[in-house]
């Protein structure tokens, strides 16, 4: 594995956030108050408030169309704020855009690599955009290729690389200027499970090195794995905020009983399990019974003479929080 210290972009005493929210007294690098973005009569972001502290991974969770990407474009100083206040490093994007962008790394939702160039050439050229000398660019590129596990592909053209390799290269490129904040817009969309886990490992190492991460995702497991704190967005608004653990504790039970029946519409069985847990969610292919003791809930189901095709007890997750808050499946 590459040496974590090779990618330190902050002072040596920078420490990684643990699995709880960072201390409220931490330095705020990014803040928004009543942040709003409209496109004609359509409101994409509707007066949201949030703050991101140094050294944490902060997430925007929600389905497609929730306003996550519009928020990220404003934070990245590439889309003007319609109304409200946005500050990065204490600076206003409306007047200090270039100074802010010099301190940001940006990994867009879609890869924008030059596929006719080699892997290392993509890094060299991008580094020159930030005014780095040729010597600095080559040194930094070598470190980043090692970090992204692409050293052995440095001289290869980008076009034939796998999706996971291209994504790691895009993230490596976004780090060429040693940013203080890295913006990641749905970083693992379209990747297979193995590639996603490799990317999660790289992002965890970045946070350990002191880089502040701000990401959007509609993958619940990704948010639960990476984020110290997150907000759940729906229709341009923030409907909940907290650490993954605190959100699960607030909006769900400790366990969930999943029941599947031989039926096209599971609504027919919902009334028969009412009262067994705290609440019941009806999905197209199953019923979710929320209870602190899933095994006891399953026993009560059978005591009522209800015979599902399958019954599974699992711990509650952010997906359950999402369903409770938005009342729909993960991806619209």
TrEMBL record:
<dbReference type="InterPro" id="IPR003593">
    <property type="entry name" value="AAA+_ATPase"/>
</dbReference>
<feature type="domain" description="ABC transporter">
    <location>
        <begin position="30"/>
        <end position="260"/>
    </location>
</feature>
<dbReference type="InterPro" id="IPR027417">
    <property type="entry name" value="P-loop_NTPase"/>
</dbReference>
<feature type="region of interest" description="Disordered">
    <location>
        <begin position="1"/>
        <end position="22"/>
    </location>
</feature>
<comment type="similarity">
    <text>Belongs to the ABC transporter superfamily.</text>
</comment>
<dbReference type="InterPro" id="IPR017871">
    <property type="entry name" value="ABC_transporter-like_CS"/>
</dbReference>
<dbReference type="InterPro" id="IPR003439">
    <property type="entry name" value="ABC_transporter-like_ATP-bd"/>
</dbReference>
<dbReference type="GO" id="GO:0016887">
    <property type="term" value="F:ATP hydrolysis activity"/>
</dbReference>
<feature type="compositionally biased region" description="Low complexity">
    <location>
        <begin position="9"/>
        <end position="22"/>
    </location>
</feature>
<dbReference type="GO" id="GO:0046677">
    <property type="term" value="P:response to antibiotic"/>
</dbReference>
<dbReference type="InterPro" id="IPR050763">
    <property type="entry name" value="ABC_transporter_ATP-binding"/>
</dbReference>
<dbReference type="GO" id="GO:0005524">
    <property type="term" value="F:ATP binding"/>
</dbReference>
<protein>
    <submittedName>
        <fullName>Lipooligosaccharide transport system ATP-binding protein</fullName>
    </submittedName>
</protein>
<keyword id="KW-1003">Cell membrane</keyword>
<keyword id="KW-0813">Transport</keyword>
<keyword id="KW-0067">ATP-binding</keyword>
<keyword id="KW-0547">Nucleotide-binding</keyword>
<keyword id="KW-0046">Antibiotic resistance</keyword>
<dbReference type="GO" id="GO:0005886">
    <property type="term" value="C:plasma membrane"/>
</dbReference>
<keyword id="KW-1278">Translocase</keyword>
<keyword id="KW-0472">Membrane</keyword>
<dbReference type="Pfam" id="PF00005">
    <property type="entry name" value="ABC_tran"/>
</dbReference>
